[in-house]
Amino acid sequence: MGTESIRLELIDWLKRLDDESILASLLQFKKSAESGDWSDNLSADQVESLKRGLSDAENNNMMTSQDFWTSYGRKV
To answer: Looking at residue 32, what is its pLDDT?
Structure first.
Protein backbone atom coordinates (compact mmCIF):
# COMPACT_ATOMS: atom_id res chain seq x y z
CA MET A 1 0.00 0.00 0.00
CA GLY A 2 1.55 3.30 -1.08
CA THR A 3 1.52 6.64 0.67
CA GLU A 4 -1.24 8.08 -1.51
CA SER A 5 -3.59 5.14 -0.97
CA ILE A 6 -2.98 5.27 2.79
CA ARG A 7 -3.72 9.00 2.77
CA LEU A 8 -6.95 8.50 0.83
CA GLU A 9 -8.08 5.69 3.12
CA LEU A 10 -7.46 7.84 6.18
CA ILE A 11 -9.28 10.83 4.66
CA ASP A 12 -12.27 8.65 3.87
CA TRP A 13 -12.26 7.22 7.39
CA LEU A 14 -11.96 10.69 8.98
CA LYS A 15 -14.92 11.98 6.97
CA ARG A 16 -17.12 9.30 8.51
CA LEU A 17 -15.64 9.33 12.03
CA ASP A 18 -18.01 10.53 14.77
CA ASP A 19 -16.06 9.48 17.87
CA GLU A 20 -15.06 12.78 19.46
CA SER A 21 -12.39 11.22 21.69
CA ILE A 22 -10.62 9.66 18.71
CA LEU A 23 -10.85 12.93 16.80
CA ALA A 24 -9.42 14.84 19.78
CA SER A 25 -6.58 12.32 20.09
CA LEU A 26 -5.80 12.61 16.39
CA LEU A 27 -5.82 16.40 16.62
CA GLN A 28 -3.40 16.26 19.57
CA PHE A 29 -1.17 13.88 17.61
CA LYS A 30 -1.23 16.30 14.64
CA LYS A 31 -0.31 19.28 16.84
CA SER A 32 2.48 17.32 18.48
CA ALA A 33 3.89 16.22 15.12
CA GLU A 34 3.79 19.78 13.81
CA SER A 35 5.42 21.32 16.85
CA GLY A 36 8.75 19.64 16.12
CA ASP A 37 11.20 18.18 18.57
CA TRP A 38 10.42 19.16 22.17
CA SER A 39 14.09 19.89 22.76
CA ASP A 40 13.98 22.70 20.19
CA ASN A 41 11.73 24.68 22.56
CA LEU A 42 13.97 24.54 25.64
CA SER A 43 15.42 27.72 27.09
CA ALA A 44 19.18 28.16 27.45
CA ASP A 45 18.82 27.59 31.22
CA GLN A 46 16.94 24.34 30.65
CA VAL A 47 19.58 23.09 28.20
CA GLU A 48 22.33 23.96 30.67
CA SER A 49 20.48 22.16 33.47
CA LEU A 50 20.15 19.04 31.33
CA LYS A 51 23.85 19.17 30.47
CA ARG A 52 24.75 19.42 34.17
CA GLY A 53 22.51 16.45 34.93
CA LEU A 54 24.10 14.36 32.18
CA SER A 55 27.55 15.33 33.42
CA ASP A 56 26.61 14.35 36.97
CA ALA A 57 25.33 10.98 35.76
CA GLU A 58 28.48 10.33 33.72
CA ASN A 59 30.61 11.13 36.78
CA ASN A 60 28.46 9.03 39.16
CA ASN A 61 27.60 12.18 41.09
CA MET A 62 24.12 11.00 42.04
CA MET A 63 22.11 9.98 45.08
CA THR A 64 19.69 7.13 45.51
CA SER A 65 15.98 7.71 45.66
CA GLN A 66 16.04 6.56 49.27
CA ASP A 67 18.73 9.13 50.18
CA PHE A 68 16.78 11.86 48.39
CA TRP A 69 13.53 11.17 50.23
CA THR A 70 15.31 10.70 53.55
CA SER A 71 16.90 14.14 53.15
CA TYR A 72 13.35 15.56 53.03
CA GLY A 73 12.33 13.71 56.19
CA ARG A 74 10.31 11.03 54.44
CA LYS A 75 10.67 7.48 55.64
CA VAL A 76 11.27 5.05 52.81
So the answer is: 84
